[in-house]
Q: What sequence folds into this?
């Protein structure tokens, strides 16, 4: 009946961060999709409560097709997991398309993800798209983060054709709502924009998740600097501490935690001097890793205390061992 909104087939769910420098460009990319406006919706969930995006939202509402449902909701104050959970609860579609707040969507993003799930109706199938920084913002550091897999947990390149079957991340993935709800939503004990997706990916994998690359590369509108990544690494360390308290046992990142921060900082300086002298790529990468690992250890110690950070973890019980190995190894620098 005219005037009654139809139930969309796929829902963009975007967790807002405490900054949104180019939100207008981001929302425009979601409004301008090739999929019929009645077949998708856009849900922004804000758990930070510090943004004022009224002008951009008013402009988006004025220019969008009337059939497209666009919502911006302030959910309970909290971290990223709180925002996404609130957005999922608000979403109406059977397919949830999780999308980063600093990503620019190609026009066929919603259409490609919906087609993937129509062609793969099994409940455990997950569609993953990539997220790549554009040439104008690209640096040597960013290229290393993407191609090494340190940024999102799997190597991202322009010519990529696949992701590991156990890959899951929050920035550009589609999942059937029923499968997500059966597994349980994101754990809101994770305080920041880090590790909440890794932990959920473990649980999804334990229930048989099978991810596939859908062939869509969104633009990552983010000039990632070393300072940015060190800040993210602090949050990653805090997230690792939450994961350890929940599951215990020995985990791959404990090898990093056994290294004192002072030694990591000295290693970074030594690697930087060696790179300046030799211009060898391996010395530059060693510098990157040492700087970021030092920040990770700092975040973990801040959340868990230096004694626990240095302690060698005991062997985990079988259930925890299966869980932590069920998904791709966490990139310590996950966005």
A:
């Amino acid at each position: 009946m005219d005037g009654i909104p139809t139930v969309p087939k796929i829902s963009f769910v975007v967790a807002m961060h405490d900054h949104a420098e180019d939100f207008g460009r981001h929302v425009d990319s979601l409004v301008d999709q090739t999929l019929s406006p009645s077949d998708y919706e856009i849900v922004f969930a804000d758990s930070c409560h510090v943004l004022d995006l009224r002008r951009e939202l008013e402009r988006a509402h004025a220019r969008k097709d009337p059939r497209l449902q666009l919502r911006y909701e302030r959910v309970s104050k909290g971290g990223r997991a709180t925002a996404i959970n609130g957005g999922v609860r608000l979403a109406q579609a059977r397919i949830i398309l999780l999308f980063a707040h600093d990503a620019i969507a190609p026009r066929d993003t919603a259409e490609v993800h919906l087609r993937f799930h129509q062609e793969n109706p099994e409940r455990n199938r997950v569609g993953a798209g990539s997220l790549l920084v554009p040439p104008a913002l690209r640096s040597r550091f960013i290229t290393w983060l993407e191609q090494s897999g340190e940024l999102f947990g799997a190597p991202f390149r322009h010519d990529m054709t696949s992701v590991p079957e156990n890959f899951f991340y929050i920035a550009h993935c589609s999942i059937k709502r029923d499968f997500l709800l059966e597994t349980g939503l994101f754990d809101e004990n994770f305080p920041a924009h880090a590790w909440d997706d890794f932990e959920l990916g473990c649980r999804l994998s334990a229930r048989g998740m099978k991810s596939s690359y859908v062939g869509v590369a969104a633009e990552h509108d983010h000039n990632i600097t070393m300072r940015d990544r060190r800040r993210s690494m602090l949050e990653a360390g805090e997230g690792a501490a939450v994961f350890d308290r929940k599951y215990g046992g020995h985990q791959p990142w404990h090898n990093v935690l056994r290294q004192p921060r002072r030694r990591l900082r000295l290693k970074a300086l030594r690697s930087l001097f060696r790179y300046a002298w030799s211009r060898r790529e391996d010395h530059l990468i060693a510098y990157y890793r040492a700087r970021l690992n030092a920040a990770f250890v700092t975040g973990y110690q801040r959340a868990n205390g230096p004694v626990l950070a240095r302690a060698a973890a005991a062997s985990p019980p079988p259930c925890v061992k299966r869980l932590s190995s069920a998904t791709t190894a966490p990139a310590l620098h996950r966005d």
User: Anything to note?
Assistant: The radius of gyration is 20 Å. Residues 29 and 105 are 5 Å apart (CA to CA). The beta strands are 10-15, 40-46, 69-74, 95-99, 103-104, 125-132, 172-176, 210-220.
